[in-house]
């Protein structure tokens, strides 16, 4: 992207100013630089022979806990006093805290959405209570047992919950993929254990709703319900 923005291509020459000395270089390869990882990376890589005679410095990156960092800093200060140690722990911890707050906000929004879904499910059960009572009464008259009626409701509501959960996952993927891949330019990965947990939760809640609806319907005698129609 940098080469494209600068209008550079293979074979072009670029003049670099290194320690007050101009060095003419030629582009022999273009590569994509990923700065999202922990390892070191640079926009330009030169042949070591190009910088012969220059007073260069080596760069090393280490990842360790606070105790190890303090011990290493003391050791370097004693043995190699000219070495500079730059700690980015505080910046990383601040970034991690920020992302934790964002994750908490997302989880809070998801909890509110889940609560709203439960209220909608409860409203749907209450709204269809009379119709379910008529269905259960009719099935009883036709000879269906209590277990068969319960099983029918469980299968119906469970299937609805599974389909709704799958639709939610697909819509979530469709909304998240452009943000992750196009905006943040990150690698797309799916937490399948979380997806399965979501589907299981949606199916379980819907099944529970079916059991409640069936229990309310079966609690009424068939004759009064059918006469009420």
Automatic annotation (TrEMBL):
* Cellular compartment(s): Cell membrane
Q: Mainly resides where?
A: membrane
Looking at the Swiss-Prot or TrEMBL record, what is one Pfam family this protein matches?
A: FtsX
TM stretches of this protein: 108-129, 150-175, 195-219
Q: Which UniProt keywords apply?
A: Cell membrane, Membrane, Transmembrane, Transmembrane helix
Report the domain of life of the source organism.
Bacteria
One GO cellular component term: plasma membrane
Listed InterPro entries:
ABC3_permease_C (IPR003838), Membrane_comp_ABC_pdt (IPR038766)
Residues forming the ABC3 transporter permease C-terminal domain are: 109-219
Q: How does it sit in the membrane?
A: Multi-pass membrane protein
Identification of the protein by name: Oxidoreductase
């Amino acid at each position: 992207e940098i080469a494209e923005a600068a209008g550079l291509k293979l074979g072009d020459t670029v003049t670099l100013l290194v320690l007050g000395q101009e060095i003419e270089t030629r582009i022999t390869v273009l590569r994509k630089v990923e700065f999202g990882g922990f390892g070191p990376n640079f926009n330009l890589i030169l042949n070591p022979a190009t910088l012969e005679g220059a007073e260069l410095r080596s760069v090393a990156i280490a990842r360790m806990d606070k105790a190890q960092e303090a011990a290493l800093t003391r050791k370097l200060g004693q043995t190699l006093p000219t070495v500079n140690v730059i700690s980015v722990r505080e910046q990383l911890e601040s970034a991690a805290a920020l992302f934790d707050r964002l994750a908490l906000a997302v989880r809070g929004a998801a909890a509110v959405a889940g609560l709203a879904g439960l209220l909608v499910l409860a409203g749907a059960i209450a709204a269809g209570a009379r119709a379910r009572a008529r269905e259960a009464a009719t099935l009883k008259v036709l000879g269906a047992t209590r277990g068969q009626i319960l099983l029918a409701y469980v299968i119906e509501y469970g299937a609805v919950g599974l389909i709704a959960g799958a639709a939610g996952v697909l819509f979530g993927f469709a909304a998240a993929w452009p943000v992750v891949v196009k905006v943040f330019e990150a690698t797309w990965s799916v937490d399948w254990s979380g997806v399965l947990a979501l589907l299981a939760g949606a199916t379980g809640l819907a099944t529970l709703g079916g059991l409640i609806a069936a229990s309310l319907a079966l609690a009424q005698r068939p004759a009064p319900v059918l006469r009420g129609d």
